[in-house]
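We store chain and fold; example below:
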Amino acid sequence: MISLLPVLAFVFGTLLITAVAMLVMPRRATAIERRLEELAAFDTTGAQEQKPRFQTLVGLFKRLGEKAPRSPKELGALRLRLVQAGYRRDEALTIFFGIRVMFALVLFSVVSTGVFARPNLTFALGGLGFGYVLPGMVLARKAKARAHRIRLSLADMLDLLVVSVEAGLGLDQAIARVGSELAFAYPELSDELRLINLELRAGKARSEALRNLADRTGVEDLSSLVTMLIQTDKFGTSVAQSLRVYSETLRTKRRQRAEEAAAKTGVKMVFPLVFCIFPAIWVVTIGPAAIRFVTVLFPLIENAK
């Protein structure tokens, strides 16, 4: 089995290079689209979308993703995770599948060819599985980081909402105003608030637009805020008073989270202290005494013998 690994690696590498060459080769439709883009560049409005820096690589990932196998059960959750990470383009799902397939094939080829270690079929299959799972892990981490940034910006958003509503603006106008004001400090939350305004202009109900906001972000505090705003709109209570009460509640939760994180610090510091700091301290404090003990005691033991 091990003797066949170089042959399999050579065959696999040949097929991989052939597939990449066929994918990179421009097609007729691609040439037509490029020509249309060049003609559209002479539009009098001058509005042009910013092209991606790695357009060729993105095109390769898109073509791989179009041919990659997909699980219908996974598509909904994966699309939601991409939206929560900030990727709302229509082809984001296809590009993600292409990245997943590319990572799996690259790791399999690297491990099977024995670049860093002896070729092993088990390690090669393990690298194939790890390369397939790694993009999903990175995506989940990016979604979590984005949700954390949005969570930190909620307090300032609530303060601006309270000021705007108490100044006489309606809830829709207040959301639009706060979204424009937070564009520099908190761009993620500002984009989400602008999407609410676009959905409202398109004719969606306010409750549906707010629920979509909670789904796009995946932040529990924002979901609670959306529920509170929907109930306030349904029962006709004061929006400003509800926002002020929720702002105080949110700040209490943030303080409790900070206290919880501070309480966990002592436990988390045990392992760095034991494995990193204590050995260095022991070498500095006990090392000279141990050396002196060995240089003095061992000669006495040898003389006594």
